[in-house]
Design goal:
Helix content is 59%, strand content 0%. 9% of the residues are buried. It is elongated and about 55 Å long. The protein has nine helices and no strands. It has 133 residues and is mainly α. The longest helix is centred in the C-terminal third of the chain and has 26 residues.
Length: 133
């Protein structure tokens, strides 16, 4: 995969369209059409990582926190408290790829999510009460 990336990286602008290397005639990009799959996979994969899904802002909302939790559950053995179920020592680098998941255990993150949930519930209740009058 690394050798593919070495060949394809200079031509990712053919699909990124943010870069100015795009050849309007398409000759250069046509030769590297196979690289498009690597680029699309990389973009999709990067958006779906704890680094993007588990930001402080994302987990401050109940839905964002759940999305983060669902992603982090994929490597749940990394964070298990009991020695018999924890896989961190055996798969350290694999677990470290998801180290952003540790934000879920942050007391500040728990308080913010709880507060936002309470604010929404209060806001929803006051809105429904206001329309009932």
């Amino acid at each position: 995969m690394k050798s593919c990336n070495n060949i394809c990286d200079p031509h990712k602008c053919c699909w990124d369209q943010k870069d100015v290397c795009y050849d309007k005639d398409g000759k250069d990009c046509d030769m590297y059409e196979g690289c498009k799959n690597i680029y699309q996979f990389t973009v999709a994969h990067m958006a779906n990582t704890p680094d993007n899904l588990c930001t402080k802002e994302a987990i401050s909302e109940v839905e964002g926190r759940q999305t983060c939790q669902d992603k982090c559950d994929e490597r749940g053995c990394c964070w298990v408290d009991t020695a018999s179920g924890n896989c961190y020592e055996e798969y350290t680098s694999w677990c470290d790829e998801f180290k952003q998941c540790l934000i879920l255990d942050s007391p500040v993150a728990h308080e913010e999510t709880a507060q936002n949930g309470a604010d929404k519930a209060t806001g929803d209740a006051s809105t429904s009460q206001g329309t009932a009058d």
